[in-house]
Design a protein that fits this description.
The structure is a single chain. The protein has about 425 residues and is an alpha/beta fold. The chain has two domains: about 250 residues, TIM Barrel (Alpha-Beta Barrel), CATH 3.20.20; about 130 residues, Beta Barrel (Lyase, Ornithine Decarboxylase, Chain A, domain 1). About 30% of the residues lie in helices and about 25% in strands. The chain contains 13 helices and 19 strands. Strands 1, 12, 13, 14, 15, 16, 17, 18 and 19 form a nine-stranded mixed beta sheet that branches. An eight-stranded parallel β-barrel has the order 2-3-4-5-6-9-10-11, surrounded by five helices. A two-stranded antiparallel sheet has the order 7-8. A hairpin with an 8-residue loop joins strand 15 and strand 16. Helix 2 packs parallel to helix 9, helix 5 packs across helix 6 and helix 8 runs parallel beside helix 9. The chain is globular and about 70 Å long. The structure holds pyridoxal-5'-phosphate.
């Protein structure tokens, strides 16, 4: 089954005139609708905020777009903090997710006024030595095992994130003594879950802890951060999450556990994939074929542009523009030009008959796509375009050039002059 996309072959070819393939294109209206629906689904909660996980799509145009709906940013490095601040997101609209955090990073997060989400109890001393004790702090929990609807969602014993329940209680107690005024709790117990019960199940687990922490320690937790991990249907057979069902599910357990105990708290999320994943596309051109023991379709994108299939065999649906209605007669691997045999966007994929110059769209690439780009084999990272409602595009990140690639090399004068001469002759 091929899918009809929000743009046509003519659109893609006209964009490619200015921005040669491969390039990323994001659907602005669809991202806006996603953010707006999320805020509607959680409108029952007064302090609701989505801290967009910057690592998913670290592009200012996307951060600014999401900011219009009230989104903050979840950051984990100094450049991500800079990106958020320069995009107009500041102070407590930034969550800093620590984990093996350096002094420098603590100082940058404190300077930005971000909320620090502490990964471990041993980090308390480290943080105190770097920046003192902040007024607000969030603590990351790892329950070891997590069940929803009697199904085990994740074995978290070998996850490096978060602290045990015992450590969590000890940390709240210690931090209260040290003068912290506002507390939060955070956990991320799944990755790419398309189960509508994931957030409600996680929320219930955290809400119960909030009640227990209050009873045992007299510490009132003010916000619950459900983190990311909400998935998208990469495969056409999968069903998307219904965010309104999710919002209602969280509301139900909130009433049962929090409201019933006469408490009130803010709900935060840190979704990345869910916010932009389905609305970004990697557009690539067919540049060759091979007929050996199998059929191969060669494209001008490589795993350097989209690493997920090569890294963990992730499925990405592929549509051949202009051939959406055609019969799927060809079974082939869709491959890039890296000298690595895992450089395959699809293996044994059924496709319509393909000709040189056809435009293939690799779907659901809007999160953890361009962001994971790399330069192996001297391949350059592609441009990112924003498609507006009239299907015109704005370039929101130009393609990397060979100049950029050589920028960090500071060998000696001879090397620099050799490189400069090559660019002059170009
Ligand atoms: C990666 C990450 C997210 C976002 O995850 P998605 O699967 O993209 O929703 C949110 N919070 C933290 C702490 C993360 O590490």
């Amino acid at each position: 089954m091929q899918q009809f996309l929000p743009f046509t072959k003519e659109d893609a070819l006209s964009w490619a005139y200015d921005y040669p393939t491969p390039f990323y294109v994001y659907d602005e209206e669809a991202i806006k609708k996603c953010a707006s629906d999320l805020y509607r689904a959680f409108a029952w909660n007064k302090g609701f905020k989505e801290y967009f996980a910057v690592k998913a799509t670290p592009t200012p145009a996307i951060l600014r777009l999401l900011r219009q709906f009230g989104c903050g940013a979840d950051c984990a490095s100094i450049p991500e903090l800079m990106l958020a601040e320069a995009s107009g997101i500041s102070g407590t609209d930034i969550m800093f997710s620590s984990n093996e955090t350096s002094d420098k990073e603590y100082r940058a997060a404190a300077k930005a006024g971000a909320i620090i989400n502490l990964d471990d109890i041993t980090q308390i001393k480290h943080m105190e030595d770097s920046i003192g004790i902040p007024e607000t702090i969030c603590l990351r929990y790892n329950p070891g095992e997590f069940n929803i609807t009697n199904e085990i969602m994740g074995h978290l014993f070998d996850s490096k994130f978060g602290m045990t329940k015992e450590q969590l209680f000890e940390a709240y107690k210690l931090l209260k003594e040290k003068g912290v005024k506002h507390f939060g709790i955070h956990a991320m117990l799944a990755s790419c879950s398309i189960d509508n019960d994931y957030y409600p199940g996680l929320a219930a687990e955290l809400f119960r802890l909030v009640v227990e922490v209050k009873e045992k320690l007299g510490v009132q937790i003010e916000f619950v951060d459900l983190s990311g991990g909400v998935g998208i249907p990469y495969h056409p057979d999968e069903k998307p999450v219904d965010i309104f069902t999710v919002g209602k599910g969280v509301h139900r357990v909130y009433d049962e556990i929090i409201a019933k105990n006469g408490m009130e708290l803010k709900i935060f999320t840190e979704m990345g994939r869910y916010m932009t994943g389905p609305y970004g596309y990697l557009v690539t051109k067919v540049i060759g074929f091979k007929h050996i023991y199998k059929e191969y379709v060669g494209v001008d994108a490589t795993a350097c542009n989209l690493m997920r299939p090569a890294m963990y065999g992730a499925y990405h649906h592929i549509t051949v523009l202009g051939k959406e209605d055609e019969e799927l007669k060809l079974k082939a691997d869709v491959v890039g030009s890296l000298c690595e045999n895992n450089d395959k966007f699809a293996v044994d994929r059924l496709l319509p008959e393909i000709e040189l110059g056809d435009i293939l769209v690799i779907e659901d690439a809007g999160a953890h796509g361009h962001a994971m780009g790399y330069n192996y084999n001297g391949k350059l990272r592609s441009a990112e375009l924003m498609m507006h409602s009239d299907r015109s595009v704005t370039c929101i990140r130009r393609a990397q050039t060979a100049r950029d690639y050589f920028d960090t090399l500071d060998v000696d004068r001879e090397f620099t002059e050799n490189i400069d001469r090559m660019f002059e002759n170009d």
